[in-house]
Design a protein that fits this description.
Blueprint: E1 8-19, E2 25-41, H1 48-51, E3 60-66, E4 76-79, E5 82-92, E6 97-104
Antiparallel strand pairs: 1-2, 1-4, 2-3, 3-6, 4-5, 5-6
């Protein structure tokens, strides 16, 4: 993939366990990596969005980044002040590109 398409900055976050002031464990999101990405809206299968416009989801985005080891669906992506839960990841090429399907987080 040409770098020119990766023109958006995203931050991949992971959950870490910390302690509150009483020493109780709490979970918090921390930045894992900030990378350049290509961001593409997810669409239904070919032709479906013409027959049924609701199939074009504004809540799901595909993020394409240079391949990174260790990205899982327990992480999330911050993009344009919104948070996207990672649903799936797919390796494109031989560890060249990582395609991540993200869904807008409810909370």
């Amino acid at each position: 993939m040409r770098a020119g398409r990766m023109d958006r900055r995203i931050t991949i976050q992971k959950v870490t366990e910390t302690q509150n002031t009483y020493g109780e464990p709490i979970e918090a999101w921390t930045d894992h990596r900030t990378v350049w990405a290509e961001v593409v809206p997810q669409r239904g299968s070919s032709g479906e969005h013409y027959r049924n416009p609701e199939l074009v989801s504004t809540n799901r985005l595909i993020f394409r980044i240079r391949y990174l080891i260790g990205i899982t669906n327990k992480m999330r992506i911050e993009y344009n002040s919104d948070y996207y839960d990672i649903k799936t990841t797919a390796e494109l090429g031989r560890r060249e590109i990582l395609e991540i399907l993200g869904e807008l987080s409810e909370g």
